[in-house]
Amino acid sequence: MKIICIGRNYLKHARELEHDIPTEPVFFMKPDSSLLLDNRHFYIPGFSNEIHYEVELIIKINRLGKSIEARYAHRYYDEIGLGVDFTARDLQRQLIEKGLPWEKSKAFDSAAVLGGFIPKEELGDLGQIDFSLRKNGEVVQNGNSRDMIFAVDTIIEYISQFVTLKIGDLIYTGTPAGVGPVKINDQLEGFIGEKKMFDFLVK
Ligand code: ZN
To answer: How far is ligand 1, taken at its centre, from the CA of residue 54, in Å?
Structure first.
């Protein structure tokens, strides 16, 4: 399986990092070795002094597909999940400055936290999914899928022009505003609506 992540998909987040607003989706990948499952501890790696959380809605692909049109994209997933796209912001800043790929700052071990999934029938309108991240009990990010610059089906259409989507692939759909650093002993809890999707400690 592969993990595809969308960058800069929420206006306020693109602005908080002083990025340009994209005119087409920006994507990058993480390897399967970056997955962190089952609410395991996240260990801050030694190579960064600025690891940021980014809470994101996640699409799990359930059919093989290539060049999928947006109007058929809903047939390629039936669950929506929540996770964290951990980012070594200090490294990412250096890479962006040099015009280099972001992988070193995004694809490291445990950088893709994967929580639970909810069947899309239970979620109702996929254009109105509320989600949030709490750090040590305090809400630090609050998002709604209606604020995505590129909606899920548009993302699938775009990515699948370049990359064949396979069963089990994950698409992290971008983070809303409010990203920030983690430190040892922080507790991160993610919610879709009122339902808790992950709960883990930073070590
Ligand atoms: Zn992200």
So the answer is: 5
Distance 130 CA to ligand 1 centre (A): 17
Residue 132 Cα to ligand 1 middle (Å): 14
User: Given a cut of 80, is residue 14 above it in pLDDT?
Assistant: no
- Choosing among 2.60.410.10, 3.90.850.10, 3.30.420.40, 3.40.50.1970, the CATH entry for 3-201 is 3.90.850.10
Residue 12 clears pLDDT 90, i.e. is over it: no
Domain ranges of the chain: 3-201
Ion ligand 1: residues, CB within 5 A, are 54, 85, 175
CA distance linking residue 106 with residue 88, whole number of Å: 7
How many angstroms separate the CA atoms of 97 and 75, rounded? 39
* Distance between CA atoms of residues 34 and 86, nearest Å: 10
Per residue in 19-69, pLDDT (tens digit) is 788 899 999 999 999 999 999 999 999 999 999 999 999 999 999 999 999
